[in-house]
Structure formats: structure tokens, C-alpha cells
Amino acid sequence: MNVFHCSLPYKYILDILLLLLVASNCRSDDNPGEEDNNDNCAVLCSGELFEDVQLLRLFNSSTRFPHMKLLSSPERIQHEFEVLKNTSNVLDRGELQKFVEKWFAPPGLDITIVMPYDWVEEPHFINDVYDIKLRGWLHDLNGIWKLLLRKTPEDVKENANRYSQIYLPNPFVIPGGRFTEMYYWDSFWTIEGLLLCQMHHTARKMIENLLHLMKQYGHIPNGSRKY
Ligand SMILES: *[C@@H]1O[C@H](CO)[C@@H](O)[C@H](O)[C@H]1NC(C)=O
Ligand SMILES: *[C@@H]1O[C@H](CO)[C@@H](O)[C@H](O)[C@H]1NC(C)=O
Ligand SMILES: *[C@@H]1O[C@H](CO)[C@@H](O)[C@H](O)[C@H]1NC(C)=O
Questions:
Q1: Ligand 3 atom with least separation from CA of 222
Q2: Does the Cβ of 86 fall within 6 Å of ligand 2?
Q3: What is the average pLDDT value for the chain, to the nearest integer?
Q4: Ligand 3 center–CA 147 separation, angstroms
């Protein structure tokens, strides 16, 4: 018995779409997409502030700081940090903490949870599974789609230099609850699963996001963040 029996047409549709992606990748190599001119990497992924935050282990996770929102422009924050460094001989952890609290908002403002409107309660393929236990498990598994759809708020588009998150025009599936961005490699398997579960609209929107990244950057980044 093949539990993940997939009806062939869906499989072909995915392969064709991915071929199209590869084809457009080759084309945009000749004409690379526009680079993001709202570069905040000087604050969120390099520079003195970034080094101090990471080396003093201000947070228990190394991605917490790069996922924060800048509360002012990267230039202003860099300037303020230079002033602080100039006025204190040795910057201690407490001062650094206060600085980060003043100029950054905690992570989480760059993503919202959305409900997939094409979710199907009983995808056809589950009926082909005769083992009742397995069928129940697949049923539960199918329910997880409802927990994994995300969208980037408009503010990420309008204030791109305040976030490491890259704005995506459509909702996307994250590979698990703790993730806060879309990943390229994971999206391949996600889209296979979405097609199997008859969520064609969500699958299409995921592919459109990948095409959007291709147009903007000339390639599809590993994940939808700039660090
Ligand atoms: C890490 O820090 C965050 C925020 O301060 C906290 O919510 C979380 O529980 C901490 N995680 C661990 C594993 O200590
Ligand atoms: C910090 O000090 C350096 C060296 O004295 C100086 O060149 C720089 O202009 C100062 N920066 C600010 C923002 O005060
Ligand atoms: C690329 O994405 C994968 C998930 O698909 C992740 O495990 C890996 O850490 C990422 N690599 C980099 C360099 O960020």
C-alpha cells in the first residue's frame, strides 16, 4: 500500500511549475533583479552593535536580535550607538540592553497568522488508505495546514529597512511552528503536500512568492530574510 499515493496530474503540474522556475532563473541571470536598496545589514547582521549584542550574549538565541524591528532608520541607530560608545568607556551588558530596548521592538511584528481558505477537510487520497489508525493520523496531519500559514504585514513592505524579513505578496506555509520565514528547499516538499491535499490555491500562491523573489533578487534566497 502506498500511503502517499499521489494522483499523477498534480505531480506533473508541480514538476512543470518548478521547471518554469528554473527556466526563469536562467533568464534572470542575464538580467539580475533589482537589489534591495533598503539595506539594514549594517545594524542587523554586521557592525559594532551587532557584534556587541552577539558577543555579550544579550539574548539566549542568536537569531533573536536579527529578527527585531528597528524603531528608527539604520543610519540613526548607528549614529546613536556611536554616541553611546563615545560617552561610555566600557559598554556593559545593562547599558547595551537598555539601548536595544529603546531602539528595537521584540521579534514577531514581521509576520501574522492567516487561515488557508482552500483547506479541505477530507482530501481524496486519505480515502485510499485502508488502515484506520493510519487514516486517522493522516486526518490529523492534514489539520496542521491550518496552523502553518503566514503572511508578511504591509509594514514590512512600506518600511523594508526596519526589518530583516523580506516582504512576500502572498501567504506562505512555514515548515514548523517556530519558523518565521519561508524557505526555498522546504517549499518544494510543502507544495507537493499542498497539491496532495488539494490546496491548489495556496500552492499557487507559494510559487508566486518564489517568482516574486526571483524577480526582486535575480535568484531565490535560501530563506525570506536578509542577513
Ligand atoms: C529565551 O528568551 C526568551 C525571551 O527573553 C524567552 O521567552 C524564552 O523562553 C527563552 N528561551 C529559553 C530556552 O531560555
Ligand atoms: C566618536 O568619537 C570619534 C573619535 O573621537 C569621532 O571621530 C566621532 O565623530 C565620534 N562620533 C560621534 C557620533 O560623536
Ligand atoms: C537554509 O534553509 C534550511 C532550511 O531549508 C536551513 O536548515 C538552513 O540552516 C539554511 N541555511 C542557511 C545558510 O541559512
A1: 1
A2: yes
A3: 87
A4: 21
**Strand-pair partners of 183:** 223
Q: Return the SS3 of 112.
A: strand
Distances (CA, A) of 136 to 119, 127, 140: 17, 11, 6
pLDDT digits (tens, 9 = 90+) for 154-186: 999 999 999 999 999 999 999 998 999 999 999
Residue 194 to residues 120, 137, 154, 184, 191, Cα–Cα distance (Å): 10, 17, 25, 15, 5
The CA distances from residue 67 to 45, 61, 142, 166, in Å, are 10, 10, 29, 11
Picking from 61-65, 88-92, 139-143, 177-181, which range would have the lowest pLDDT averaged per residue?
88-92
| Residue 221 · residue 183 · CB < 8 Å | no
| Residues with Cβ within 8 Å of residue 9, at least 6 apart in sequence | none
* Domain chopping of the chain, boundaries: 10-31+109-224, 36-105
Helix (H) or strand (E) holding 149: strand 149-151
**Is the alpha carbon torsion for 185, 212, 26, 196 positive or negative?**
positive
**Spatial separation of the C-alpha atoms in residues 204 and 1, rounded to whole Å:** 29
pLDDT tens figures, 116-142: 999 999 999 999 999 999 999 999 999
Q: Is the pLDDT of residue 17 over 90?
A: no
